[in-house]
Design goal:
The complex is a heterodimer. Chain A is α/β, with parallel strands linked by helices. Helices cover 47% and strands 22% of the residues of chain A. Chain A has three domains: 105 residues, OB fold (Dihydrolipoamide Acetyltransferase, E2P) (Beta Barrel), CATH 2.40.50.140; 160 residues, Cobalamin-binding domain (Rossmann fold), CATH 3.40.50; 41 residues, no CATH class. Chain B has one domain: Helix Hairpins, CATH 1.10.287. In chain B, helix 2 packs antiparallel against helix 3. Classes of the chains: A alpha/beta, B mainly alpha. At the A-B interface, helix 9 of A face helix 2 and helix 3 of B.
Chain lengths: 411, 66
């Protein structure tokens, strides 16, 4: 006896319908999510604990009607739950169709389960980073005093990124920035992969930048799941540049916030952080400039008064010197005629002396004392040998003269 | 004397002047040289005064331009 495929499938459907008449809470990981005409087609997997080995696999459907109802109940969070990689707890009724096989018809989803799972994962990730010594690695990098060349990782269309640009470019201090934009997805499944790839690119040009900024506008908590990823956290920790994070959230900190150098609430806050840091540097420079200026002014003043003193001293000294020279010349001028007169007077005196001496030694003086002078034929006679008997000689006395004749001579 | 005149400086002039005065004080000048020495002394005296005056004027000028 044989059966048709339809007969078998119809039998399976009946068995399932009879045995599983009520919806059941099912835990599974979303391997893939496809949306078609508002219906959500979900690939479910269960992996072995501690490995990636798939131990169970199945398909589920969330009809558009159910989706709309759930969206009212859960809000935007629903779309974040329905992402590949999420572990979900959903209320589903298994239904078997002869042609399409077994499918779980989803009628409810418990977001608390997913959030709790994520939180546990997040803690595990943090513990691993701590063990690897990566939690504070980026934070230990020195932040440059001036942040001007910035690699920005964001989605060009993200509102937060536009806020950031506006805030930086319209700053009232006149600071200019060199911003290099690296396009990345900031939500969805591609975040981890794209951010890591772009971080690698930035790291290979790290000399061209002062820091890296990862920016994203606001979003639901679940949407931030990618920012809790371990591989991405490791990439950020190992960046050779300080990483600034502004991914727009209010309460919880993502793993990336903890790993990054500085974590700010929003992209605008990142811009403020950058401006503030630059302002601090500028005011430091301003103060130093003032100190330099004051010191220089003090030095100049000091030297100026020193020069003034020197000038006065020089002037005084010069005047003294001139006066001394003039006094000397005056003295010489006065002394000169006196000396000359004295010299001439002295000469006259000596002449007089000489005249007196001459007179003293002359014949007049001898004649006065009673000596006589004898002349023969006009010549003075000082030797009797020159005279003969009967020679006539003239004898000169002090007063008057007489003629006498030689009677006898003696030697 | 003309050879000396070209090289005359305030210092050399003053030295010569002082030496003439010293000679006069010591009465070491002969009458024959006296008038020549005194006339030389007057000449040196005038030179020194003129030099001093010029220098003073120049120095004053330097301070004025500052």
């Amino acid at each position: 006896m044989s059966h048709t495929l339809f007969e078998i499938n119809e039998f399976i459907r009946r068995v399932i319908t009879l045995n599983l008449p009520e919806p059941l809470w099912v835990r599974a990981e979303l391997a893939d999510v496809k949306v078609s005409r508002g219906h959500y087609y979900l690939d479910l997997v269960q992996k072995a604990v501690g490995s990636n080995e798939v131990v169970a696999q199945g398909q589920a459907v969330l009809w558009s009607k159910e989706h709309r109802r759930l969206q009212k109940k859960i809000g935007v969070l629903l779309d974040n739950l329905l992402q590949p990689g999420m572990e979900v707890l959903c209320l589903a009724k298994p239904e078997f169709h002869e042609r399409f096989g077994l499918k779980l018809m989803v009628s409810d989803i418990d977001p608390a389960h997913t959030l709790g799972k994520l939180e546990i994962q997040r803690r595990e990730t943090l513990a691993k980073l701590q063990k690897l010594g990566l939690l504070e690695k980026n934070g230990r990098l020195p932040m440059p005093s001036v942040l001007q060349r910035i690699a920005v990782l964001s989605s060009g269309t993200a509102a937060g990124f536009q806020d950031f640009l506006k805030h930086l470019s319209h700053n009232s201090f006149g600071y200019r920035f060199k911003l290099d934009f690296y396009q990345v997805a900031v939500q969805g499944a591609q975040v981890e992969k794209e951010v890591m790839e772009q971080l690698d690119k930035v790291a290979s040009h790290s000399a061209a930048y002062d820091c890296v900024a990862i920016l994203r506008g606001g979003g639901a908590r679940l949407d931030l799941a990618a920012f809790d990823s371990l591989p991405l956290a490791i990439s950020v920790a190992n960046m050779p540049l300080p990483v600034l994070i502004g991914i727009g959230h209010d309460v919880d900190e993502t793993v990336l916030d903890l790993v990054a150098h500085s974590s700010l609430k929003t992209p605008t806050a990142v811009a403020d952080f950058i401006l503030h840091r630059n302002l601090e540097f500028e005011s430091l420079m301003g103060n130093l400039g003032l100190v330099v200026k004051n010191l220089a002014t003090a030095r100049t003043k000091e030297q100026h008064s020193r020069l003034q003193n020197l000038t006065q001293l020089l002037d005084f000294q010069l005047k003294t010197n001139f006066r001394r020279q003039v006094q000397m010349l005056d003295y010489i001028e006065k002394e000169l005629p006196m000396l000359t007169k004295r010299l001439i007077a002295n000469q006259q005196q000596s002449l007089l002396q000489i005249e007196k001496l001459i007179r003293l030694l002359g014949p007049e003086t001898a004649l006065q004392r009673g000596f006589a002078m004898v002349f023969h034929e006009g010549k003075q006679v000082t030797d009797t040998a020159k005279l003969k008997l009967e020679d006539e000689v003239q004898v000169q006395l002090h007063k008057g003269k007489f003629i006498s004749t030689i009677k006898k001579t003696m030697p | 004397m003309t050879k000396q005149k070209t090289k005359l400086t305030y210092e050399t002039a003053l030295q010569e002047l002082q030496s003439i005065v010293a000679q006069l004080q010591e009465e070491a000048v002969s009458m024959d040289d006296l008038s020549e020495k005194v006339s030389r002394a007057t000449e040196l005296l005038n030179f020194c005064r003129e030099r001093l005056r010029q220098t003073e004027e120049q120095v004053e000028g330097l301070f004025r331009t500052e």
